[in-house]
Amino acid sequence: MEIVDKYGYLEEVIGYIEQNIISEKGWPRVLRKIRISKELLAELSLGIKKFSENAFFALLEEKLEKRHSSITGAEAYVYGVDLKIDIEKKKAFILLTLNFKIVQREETEDKITMIIKMFSKENIKVNFVAKEKNNLKK
């Protein structure tokens, strides 16, 4: 399944992660916006250093294909993205919420929300929330 990021939402989020979390240059801004200690942000940053955008997109495509294996030739259009930094069990993570329209032959087959918790470049958890099902109009 191909991910279509027509409006550059995913690219913008990846850029934000690289500029404001991985690079220490954006930390003052991040620390002002959220309640997180500098130590937790440093641990998160270290965990996602050398983050691979290609590997991340491959993971998203794999999860989408697994969920929609019955729909061949479909495309997943990104129509919304939200990024937060949160803490779970004294460990910081990036929380991404991605909204997709699954489109086949120009008809929307499904709308789903993908919830991603990124603790490190190796520890990424993906869950889905179904929005709507079957034969939605574009």
Question: Could you name the key traits of this structure?
Answer:
138 residues; alpha+beta; 4 helices; 5 strands; 34% helix; elongated; disordered C terminus
Question: How is this structure best described in words?
Answer:
By secondary structure, the protein is an alpha+beta fold. The chain has one domain (1-127). The chain is 34% helix and 41% strand. It is built from four helices and five strands, in the order E-H-H-H-H-E-E-E-E. The chain has helices at 9-22, 27-33, 38-48, 53-67; strands at 2-4, 75-88, 91-104, 107-118, 124-136. A five-stranded mixed beta sheet has the order 1-2-3-4-5. A hairpin with a 5-residue loop joins strand 4 and strand 5 (124-136). The chain is elongated.
